[in-house]
Specification:
With 151 residues, the chain is an alpha+beta fold. The chain has helices spanning 29-39, 58-70, 94-107, 115-118, 140-145; strands at 47-51, 76-81, 84-93, 124-128.
Length: 151
C-alpha cells in the first residue's frame, strides 16, 4: 500500500502489479489492508498475505506461514515473534477477512481503525516464527541494525 513509486519503478518479477493507497492517506494499516484487499477482488485466492512493508526479514516468516497453510485448515495464521502476535505478518483466510471488512465498513470508514478491531471476528492460530523475522524499521538505526543499506 502507498503511493505509486516515482520514475516508473516496478516490483521485481514479470507479474502484474497494482499500487493502491488507503483513503484517506496515512489512515493506518487497517485502512491499507481494506484498500488492498478490496482492490484485488477478481479471482481471489483462498489465502491473503498481509505483510508490513518495513520488515526486511519477512521472507523467512512468509515461508513458515506458507508451509503451515499447506497443511490445510480453515483458520487464519498469524506470526508470533517473541511471544507477540503480529497481525501485519499473517496469512488470513480470504473469506474471513472479507467478512471482517464487510462488518467494519457497515459501521463506518476504516480510517484510523486498529488492526485488532478490524480482525476481531477473524479466527486465528498463532504460528511461531524465527526470532527477529518481524522486526521492523522505524529509524535509521533500526535499518542499520537489520542490515539495510542507508545513506
Amino acid at each position: 500500500m502507498g503511493p505509486e513509486p516515482d520514475g516508473g519503478a516496478r516490483p521485481p518479477g514479470d507479474g502484474p502489479a497494482s499500487f493502491v493507497r488507503e483513503h484517506p492517506p496515512f489512515a493506518g494499516p487497517a485502512a491499507a489492508v481494506v484498500a488492498g484487499f478490496r482492490a484485488g477482488s477478481d479471482g481471489r485466492a483462498p489465502w491473503c498475505a498481509v505483510v508490513a512493508c518495513d520488515m526486511p526479514r519477512v521472507a523467512v516468516l512468509v515461508r513458515v506461514l506458507l508451509a503451515e497453510a499447506a497443511l490445510g485448515g480453515t483458520t487464519s495464521l498469524v506470526a508470533v515473534d517473541g511471544g507477540r502476535d503480529q497481525p501485519l505478518a499473517a496469512l488470513y483466510r480470504s473469506d474471513a477477512l472479507d467478512g471482517a471488512i464487510d462488518a467494519v465498513l457497515a459501521r463506518g470508514p476504516a480510517d484510523n481503525l486498529s488492526m485488532r478491531s478490524l480482525l476481531a471476528s477473524v479466527r486465528t492460530r498463532p504460528v511461531p516464527v524465527p526470532p527477529g523475522t518481524t522486526h521492523d524499521v522505524d529509524t535509521w538505526s533500526d535499518a542499520r541494525a537489520l542490515g539495510v543499506d542507508v545513506p
